[in-house]
Amino acid sequence: MSTAKERRQKARKHGLNLHRSGPWIAVVGLLVNLWLTISSVLYAPWWGMVLLLSYLVPQTAMVKRWIPQRPADTIWIPVAGAVVWAITVYVGAQWWGWST
Predict the structure, then answer these.
(1) What digits encode the pLDDT tens for the residues 34-66?
(2) Which of 46, 58, 59, 60 could potentially form a cystine with 81 if both were Cys, beta carbons 3.0 to 4.6 Å apart?
(3) How many structural domains are present in the chain?
(4) Residue at 100 is within a domain
């Protein structure tokens, strides 16, 4: 019978290692955010598209800067970017008159 410590080590060995896969997950998240932004062309005006695309620049820079220092935390940058995108689209639809 194995101890709890051995079970945790085995689970960690076979589990998700965010120090290795975190940056890749973050890059895929940035691509998802890019897809969300490009699909916003259906209802956002040109200046809204520029605003939404401008959000991707600091996200990409942060992911690039955090990969060597904090690779496991890079996954939260695209999550925060998706939240900012959703808030911007909501505000654009409600207050700035974005519509289809």
Answers:
(1) 999 999 999 999 999 999 999 999 999 999 999
(2) 59
(3) 1
(4) no
